[in-house]
Amino acid sequence: MNYVVGTYILYLVISVALTVWVARTLHKNGRLFLVDAFHGNEPLADSINHLLVVGFYLVNSGYVSLALKYGDKAADLQQLLEALSTKVGAVLLILGVMHFFNLYVFSKMRKRALLHGAPPPIPPQGYTPVAE
Amino acid sequence: MKKLYILYDSECELCRRSRVWLGRQPAFVPLVFIPFQSAEAECRFPALKELRPDEEIVVIDDAGAVWQGGAAWVMCLWALQEYREWSLRLAQPALLSLARRMCEVVSANRYKLSRWLTKAKSNDELRHKLAQIPTQPPCLPGGYCKTR
After folding, report:
1. Which residues lie across from A127 on neighbouring strands?
2. Cβ distance B13 to B114 under 8 Å?
3. Cβ-defined contacts of A99-103 (< 8 Å, 24+)
């Protein structure tokens, strides 16, 4: 096994572990947000939560597999560490962007839900009789 | 609130276009558009004339609560799904006074703007041109009130 294959294996192990960790964190902590956004409708919130996590896994795994072969090829241990660091760094950045995107979606849904029940922003200026 | 009645000026092209735009937006509260000149407006709201609907837009809910001018516009936005956030922003005192003033200026000049939009030379020509366009059904289905 040469250094390049070593880079790939380490890269895959670290990236997949990170993806799983972030997805689980999102799944666990996003649930409350969603339950609130859907007026306490827990089955719906759980379903949306699950779908979001599936999307998250797909995008991240897709990126990790696509990016596997790109970058410098390592010939010794120093280059292996450098290549690995670059690749994992890119994965971390992508995960970060995805994470904030998810948060944005959650907060948008929550805001929407709060707007739905908002009372008229201006009190009536008067009253007039209405005939049926 | 079950419905929001919007009393608009059917002799003004700008008001008609606004009505068409409002009618296309997805709404939280159903909007019912009635020209203030129509018999239906008069029979549904017997005291409508006192509110001077010819000066500025009047919005009335199904319980009889009235909003006029800038406030009426904010209420229209509040009824729309995409613009409720904006309506809450506009309802803040500083922006609301600005909205009121804007609305006053636009309302006072609406025939001038409508003449420009329809390329009519006089108000009579404008009225004539608008009378050619078939009027939309005055109310939502089932919302028609019988003229006594």
Report:
1. B65
2. yes
3. A99/A22, A99/A26, A102/A26, A102/A30, A102/A52, A102/A56
d(CA A59, CA B99): 45
Q: How much is the pTM? A: 0.64
Report yes or no: A127 at the B interface, CB cutoff 8 Å: yes
A119 Cβ under 8 Å from any chain B Cβ: no
Question: Alpha-carbon distance B107 to B9, whole Å?
Answer: 10
Pairing of the two strands B4-8 and B31-35: parallel
B66 to A122: CB separation less than 8 angstroms, yes or no? no
Instruction: Pick the residue of A107, A110, A122 with the most B CBs within 10 A to test the interface with B by mutation.
Output: A122
**What is the C-alpha separation between B91 and B83, in angstroms, rounded?**
12
Q: Sort out which chain A residues have CB atoms less than 8 A from B66's CB and list them.
A: 124-128
B78-137 tens-digit pLDDT: 999 889 989 999 999 889 899 899 888 998 888 888 888 888 888 888 888 777 776 555
8 Å CB contact between B88 and B28: no
Which chain A residues are Cβ-neighbours of B67 within 8 angstroms?
A: 122, 124-125
User: Which residue does chain A place closest to B71, by CA atoms?
Assistant: A122
- Among B24, B18, B32, smallest CA distance to B82 is for B24
